[in-house]
Amino acid sequence: MNAWSEIAFNTAPDSENRIHGDELAKEYGFEGGLVPGVTISAYLVHPVIEVWGKDWLERGFANCHVTSPLYDNERFQVFLDSADDHHINTTLIRSNGVASANAEISITKDLPKAPNLRNDKIVEVDFEAPLATKEEWQKLQEDGCRAFKFFWGGKDPLTYLRDINSLPDLLQPHKGGFSNLCFLLGCSNWALAGNAYMNPWVHLQTISQNFRPVSYGTSLITEMEINKVYEKKGHEFIEVHVNLFDEKDEVCVMSINLIAIYKLRGY
User: Fold this and answer.
1) Is-contact 102 90, C-beta < 8 A?
2) Do 135 and 103 contact (CB within 8 A), yes or no?
3) Is the pTM of this model over 0.85?
4) What are phi and psi of 24, to 5 degrees?
5) Under CATH, which number does the domain 3-108+119-263 receive?
6) Cβ-Cβ contacts under 8 Å for 232 (sequence gap 6 or more)
7) How far apart are CA 105 and CA 149, in angstroms?
8) Is the CB of residue 110 less than 8 Å from the CB of residue 88?
9) What is the residue extent of each domain of the chain?
């Protein structure tokens, strides 16, 4: 497979992050609500899973970088460039010919030691996240972030395509399939937004390492720590490290470095 084509799906049009809704996105000069970065990342990896299958879920690495917007119902193509048997580069091209994202994807031959659960405090049911500011992030960096629980399964699990039958067989939830990258990276987004309130904010890049597939019906614990907070060209950025653990045996299933703009220039 040299290319894969699909129709983009905005998985979060009613999100608390209003950059995914048409009204606020257009105020910033976009054509409409942005397709989430985690969804775009899943597009970049989709054709690779078709090639490598469960091997990638067990030990796959992905560096996914979103460079420009993708919009709901827009036709796109993902092109594959195989460096060797264990490395594939992918590029997502919009219908207008603009490259929207790219990824370096590989099968990790020698897995690093998986992180251990720190037993960070799980967020309280009535917790209200404080406003995201540089000072708040620095406080969380010093004092530690709250952990969250998320569940892969149930009635309507998050997928990155409207038609779940178009997902690779091993990812189809109605067949009890493994979790997809959109949901797993989404856990890191939700943990970030759950620790400090951001609106609007933009997901830019994730670097992730799989340690094992996440089976249907799995409850995950998400722990986060803050790496860096900085300003560039008027935007304010946050870089965090997130680990996802299977609640049942406390084994790490995925490690994620996430980079985002938590405060857009002029907002």
Assistant:
1) yes
2) no
3) yes
4) -70, -40
5) 3.10.129.10
6) none
7) 27
8) no
9) 3-108+119-263
Each residue's pLDDT, cut to its tens digit, for the chain (267 residues) gives 589 999 999 998 887 887 788 787 888 787 888 999 999 999 999 999 999 999 999 999 999 999 999 999 999 999 999 878 899 999 999 999 999 999 999 999 999 999 999 999 999 999 999 999 999 999 999 999 999 999 999 988 999 999 999 999 999 999 999 999 999 999 999 999 999 999 899 999 999 999 999 999 999 999 999 999 999 999 999 999 999 999 999 999 999 999 999 999 876
H or E, element range at 156? none
* 262 touches 201 (CB < 8 A): yes
Task: Show the tokens assigned to 255.
Answer: 């490690």
239: helix, strand or coil: strand
Run of H or E including 143: helix 134-143
Could you give the angle at which helices 181-195 and 37-52 cross, rounded to 10 degrees?
Answer: 150
Pure H helices in 20-100: 22-27, 37-52, 54-59
CA 244-48-12 angle, to 5 degrees, is 55
Amino acid at 252: C
Residue in the structure block whose two tokens are 């946050």: 238
Cα separation, 187 vs 152, in Å, equals 10
Q: Please name the amino acid found at residue 83.
A: A
Please state whether the peptide bond connecting residue 36 to the residue before it is cis, i.e. omega within 30 degrees of 0: no
